[in-house]
Design a protein that fits this description.
The structure is a homodimer.
Chain A: H1 9-18, E1 24-25, E2 48-50, H2 55-67, E3 72-75, E4 92-95, E5 102-106, E6 111-114, H3 120-128, E7 132-133, H4 146-152, H5 159-162, E8 169-175, E9 181-183, H6 197-201, E10 210-217, E11 219-220, E12 224-232, H7 235-247, E13 254-259, H8 260-270, E14 283-291, H9 294-309, E15 317-319, H10 322-333, H11 335-342, E16 345-351, H12 357-371, E17 374-380, E18 385-391, H13 397-417, H14 436-439, H15 442-455
Parallel strand pairs in A: 2-4, 3-4
Antiparallel strand pairs in A: 1-2, 5-6, 6-10, 7-11, 8-9, 8-10, 12-14, 12-15, 13-14, 13-17, 16-18, 17-18
Helix pairs in contact in A: 1-2, 7-12, 8-11, 12-13
Amino acid sequence: MTRKRYLTDDGIAFFRSVISDENVIIPDENNADYAKDETEDLFFQPEIVLKPATTDEVSKILAYCNDNKIPVTPRGAGTGLAGGSLAVNGGVSLSLERMNAIINIDESNLQVTVEPGVITEVLQDAVKDKGLFYPPDPSSKGTCFIGGNIANNSGGPKAVKYGVVKDYVLNLEVVLANGDVIWTGANVLKNSTGYNLTQLLVGSEGTLGIVTKAVLRLIPHPAYNLVMLVPFNNMERACEAVSAIFMGGITPSGLEFMERDAIDWAVDYLGDVTIPIEDNIEAHLLIEVDGNDMDVLYKDCEKINSIVEQFGCGEILFADGSDQKDELWKLRRNVAHAVKSRSIYKEEDTVVPRAELPKLIRGVKEIGNKYGFKSVCYGHAGDGNLHINIVKGDLDDETWKNELPKGIKEIFELVVSLKGTISGEHGIGCVQQEYMHIAFSKIQLDLMRNVKKVFDPNGILNPGKIFDRNYTKY
Amino acid sequence: MTRKRYLTDDGIAFFRSVISDENVIIPDENNADYAKDETEDLFFQPEIVLKPATTDEVSKILAYCNDNKIPVTPRGAGTGLAGGSLAVNGGVSLSLERMNAIINIDESNLQVTVEPGVITEVLQDAVKDKGLFYPPDPSSKGTCFIGGNIANNSGGPKAVKYGVVKDYVLNLEVVLANGDVIWTGANVLKNSTGYNLTQLLVGSEGTLGIVTKAVLRLIPHPAYNLVMLVPFNNMERACEAVSAIFMGGITPSGLEFMERDAIDWAVDYLGDVTIPIEDNIEAHLLIEVDGNDMDVLYKDCEKINSIVEQFGCGEILFADGSDQKDELWKLRRNVAHAVKSRSIYKEEDTVVPRAELPKLIRGVKEIGNKYGFKSVCYGHAGDGNLHINIVKGDLDDETWKNELPKGIKEIFELVVSLKGTISGEHGIGCVQQEYMHIAFSKIQLDLMRNVKKVFDPNGILNPGKIFDRNYTKY
């Protein structure tokens, strides 16, 4: 199938007049840099890649594309897990990679103003130098951009105590579809002045506007943390322990679940980490506490210890040295890579109220048995956010193609019946649209579609995402 | 001026068929219960008051009003400070007072499901019995409703550490203008599934839909707190101390500012509280720290002590007994009543980044001098949220009427120049609309107006609020 072409010579000349030639790229078969992200095996080549460096350049590009009805797909670092940055309808891939300045770290107000192309870990390190903390860090923190994090309302392991991206975004500079530039709110912690456009933009996956600056809230960096790796010989019991920890009055700064295969495969994948795991262990919880008083943290760990023991845990690995803590977190952060390096896979980003995790994991295994697929589960259990990696392994192509969607549909139906939803932190992008009707009725979806029309009447911003899959895989 | 009448005998009969007769009230001159709130001297009599008890009843009422283009003004406890619950265009006052059930306290998920008519303090007490905490509590917590708190994205003194209402709302059941009922999201801590309708509804002042159920996040209740009252002989220095405390790595659970008159008048108003205040004191900070370890709290207080000393504070009153702490908070909570009992007044709910507070308070006093009015300032300084009460006192009516609006405009221009905005927690309602253009451009306001049209094409929901003052005071 041939895609519609949107660009003319005049258009290309216009873009070259706005940004210098080397920042206008017409990709060919030798350049797939902008055709992929980290989502499974998707490949969509944009017609043209534009790399503006200023808000004004973004504005001019959008005004032109809006007038000429050219699709514009904003792109961060390409670390997304739902295909959100892929130009599924062709047209322009708008890369924010050159807008990567940390504009101002305002220590007196505990705020930072950044451009969207700043790498999350670069931001974290820069503010940590001043004793400050920007908590939300997806596993890809070393490469992903703040802009992409905002577009997807990303989470990460710290969310359980500190919240997700939306909880840190105070104000956004946004270029609208027609090129108009607005700020969504004010640089304040409390705001009851009109509708919350800031929160409407966060998580909207680049479909309502292009974020060109963000004012983020910072907090004092906690001085200490301690990490525990807790094995369980029953994965449902591990999940039950999760909500018990919170009910015990503890709010850990990390509470991760890893099924046996997840940790085994990560150990294999890394090659340089050794963790003693007994044969009968089905799952682990990785638990971190942080704060400014070490005595309090030791007390918290003792309390956690006494709670997890009630759920039949094995011998706890307790890490207080930074090498050992880093190693455990490295293991956790590499689970996804490890799983993905093993097999063709499909990842689901389910989230439920945390006490429903035992029901969710039991259901996932039952559905897998019914349709003949294997899953490896891990994720931010403290938030109820379970990543379900369905691995193809030896499964035949026919079953994979025909049975898998039925199984995924049942998983999502289960999730919604547990008062959860279909994406906790990855977004819908172009891979989960077909399941949106499980989470939302037509009434809800129409409200969202009509909000989209208010912001982007010509439908140029990231078309084919969230709602309607109006394109063909090719 | 005569207002348009919207109701017919058929309409009244319809409402009586949906809800029982005693819950349909046609108010007359002897019944002003639904014509006022706590906003200055506003008075708008609704044509009819309806008190539904179920979501289904709300749905039927809205569907009828939408079909017949009858204005519907939702009403909580009537404690609002911006006239948001007043039926400025007549029509229906929809009181949610009978929908006051705490439906479920879910201890295993740290969530509570409530109806909108639950009194905030009743909710706080109910969850505290289970060791849980719902932090956002406006000064009116003993009478205000959760529904009104959600409509206004209320704050209160705990917001400085724990955030505002929006940070606790996970999911809302909402009746739309046409009677359709939706949930805005899911009962989860993380959500990247479509647009954030939940956050769009929070703070929308009943203009987008009527909240009929809310799922709120809870946290473990902190075990202890300590309170300090810190006097300063210079109010700007008091404001400077505020951001210094945060920069010192402390996040207090309360950080309130009270100008001298505020505390003096509150002492007079209450009559039963005695606080020693030296003659040269211009302002106080009321500071609370909380947590689960008393030793840590004492250390925090020592640290705060050493910080505020650098800003020339006087002798600190330190409260660790519950009577003394209650007395200090009672004082703070009664400042507004005290100020309002003294004089005709106009209250502004400004918010700026907290380090800008000294500039704000200096500017407010200068603007007051320029136009000849006196102000008494107090508020949630830790959030940068300063309530400016302009008191009429002996000012002549002419100056009050003609000069005051100019002064308020200048205050808001100052606030916005400091990257703040015109309402931190009270909302815009029907008293601040004329200043919205200072905070927002036409582009931003048009986006909001068009979002409103998506949700409420006939404009029946709380007309005359937030945007356009399409009514006459009568």
